[in-house]
Amino acid sequence: MKVIRFVVLVHFVFILFLNPLRIQAQTNGGLPPGLDEYINKVLQTFEVPGMSVSIVKDGKVVLAKGYGVKQLGKTDKVDANTLFSIASNSKAFTATALALLVEEGKLQWDDPVIKYLPWFQMADSYVSTHLTVRDLLVHQSGLAAYSGDLMLFPPSTFNRREILNKLKKLPLANDFRTTYAYDNILYLAAGEIIAAVSGISWEDFIKARIFDPVGMPGSISRYSLFAGMPNIAVAHDRINGMVQVVDHYTELNIGDASDPAGGILSNANDFSNWMITQLDSGRTPSKVVLFKPETTKELWKLVRPIPVSEMPEGLKPAQMDFFGYALGFRTYNYQRYKVVGHGGKLNGFVSQIAMVPDLQLGIAVFTNQESTGAYWSVIYHVLDFYMKNKKHDWLTNYKSAQDSSFAKTKFQLSKNTVQPDSINKIPVALSKFSGNYRDEIYGEVVISNTENGMVMEFKQLPHLTADLSYFQFNTFLATFRNVHLKADAYVTYALNPDGTIDQLKLKIINPESDLEFDDVLLKPVAK
């Protein structure tokens, strides 16, 4: 038996008095040995400036801590209260908000959306009348993946209702309730139902009904407040192989219209309480009953299966047997355990949560650089410790997977990049291209000749401004001024028989871009 000297005992009691939570955390399940050193190695390997990590076990906070720095090249460190954009991890809050209203009898999961939003309309009348509240959350409406996202990220001038009113113009790519195709736009409809039924905005509902009782005082439900917060992480992205700060990221990432899909900002301390509440079947850390255990089952129940991909050799231990979408969460297996989680991405931020109900274990990792390998390296390392799995070198293998992905992207970019014919000349006068164009979904686009060349401006998507240069044949090159969008595109025109412009179409060059222009069709506005 070890003998503890009196002075050491007094010091221990003193520390316990000052910081009971930390000592309690260290004695409830423990942490993987050398975790701090491991996480710092992850940051270095994946060139991630900063990271926020939360681990909860058996209803207690085991770790809530920041690592690295808020901004590359500066010394201000990430701490447990540093705000990160959690992006699509916001969807679980929207689903939980609806669940609270279901418990109160104010709506039902299988009620048609039009019961609460009579004006709601999609491209197919059958889908419009049969789409339910549940359908809004599980990505099986028939919309193409990421349909309408150009109105959401970066923010447009359209408000939430105006965006949803354009749903009827978005074509359905799949049969209703047959195919998983991730969308963001229908979560805006979920937010509007919450407002219609509760009488307050989605943002205010999330704060009053979830953040406050759960114990999330630092979290923000309105993205536009991000820039004004005193302790925030700065977004970073990789451009031409170099990690750098994303310019104006607090203004360009997302607008408040899209808050229900991805606008929440949170930190390690707050998110620990969120995971404890979810894992304890709706009981908050202060033992307030936010929702009933039956609601937990409803939120976590798989609704829409997702095709399972084959993992590369180095990541085989993470091979799933099942994968699917529940209500604002994804659910899958890691080896013998069921995991409930989700990911999130906005320009310069990625996040991931993983909760294991059978172990009463929750892990959340937020980063300020777009490296999925970084957060998975941490999550699987921690899962293996608590699951008592055989050790696996996640860091090395995720770094190898990232390098392979970079190589594939570089190859695809080379395939997409066409070398122009040096002797080819534009067959029509540049002046013919100047003027007003319109896309029936995305609104007005103006092409103008300036002293510095031709400029294309999306008026309702004000962060999409590009310089146009003639490329070859019937194609221009659009170089977008916001390089972090990675949205440079070929702009191809078609002519009418009289030589006037009939239409313009855009095609993204960089496969890393989150934007899609495939459904953009610009038609000249008659003068």
UniProtKB/TrEMBL annotation:
Domain Peptidase S12 Pab87-related C-terminal: 429-516
Organism domain of life: Bacteria
InterPro entries assigned: AmpC-like, Beta-lactam-related, Beta-lactam/transpept-like, Peptidase_S12_Pab87-rel_C
E.C. number(s) listed in UniProt: 3.5.2.6
Keywords linked to the UniProt accession: Hydrolase
Keyword Membrane listed: no
Keyword Phosphoprotein recorded: no
UniProt domain Beta-lactamase-related: residue ranges: 39-373
Name of a matching Pfam family: DUF3471
GO molecular function: beta-lactamase activity
Protein's name in the database: Beta-lactamase
